[in-house]
Design brief:
The chain is an all-alpha fold and 180 residues long. It is 90% helix and 0% strand. The chain contains 5 helices and no strands.
Amino acid sequence: QWGLYFKWGFFDLVIKIVYVVPVFLFIMLAVLCAVVLGVTRGGVSVVIALFALLPLFLLLVFFVGYLGSAATMAFVETGRLGSAFEFGRVSRRAFSSTFAMGWLQAVVVGMAYGVILMPFILLVAALQAVAGLALSAAGGPRIVADLGFALIRIPLFAIISYPVAITQMTLMGEAYKKTR
């Protein structure tokens, strides 16, 4: 069963990357245009142009995240990677109120998870800072403390995040299944 989960996770990553590439290219093009504008009209124009485009960038990223989630559900439902890129099918089901509610529930679960665990995350960061300062004050390299806490923090975060990710995928999957 774990092999199947790994496969689904890997293909979820592939799907999200494919969906985000056009948005990334658009944002890079917009930044390039802003830089050219800044070179020709002065540096302040770059900042103004980028801030003016920021809401559009955020909307595009939000849209791709939403649509990418529906595409992942299409893949999981059929077991075929190609079904994630059948835009008509994916968008028809993604823009149903049923899937939207499931996706919003998943977002709320993720936000609640973040709020509940924020004190714990801050505590680990504070311990890392204190250990680094103590080690530096003792004449040792701070990198040792940073590396030690990273080796603890990364697997700990993965272990804690797993149930939340399963809950989020279940909420979206159940909603996607009802959109037939």
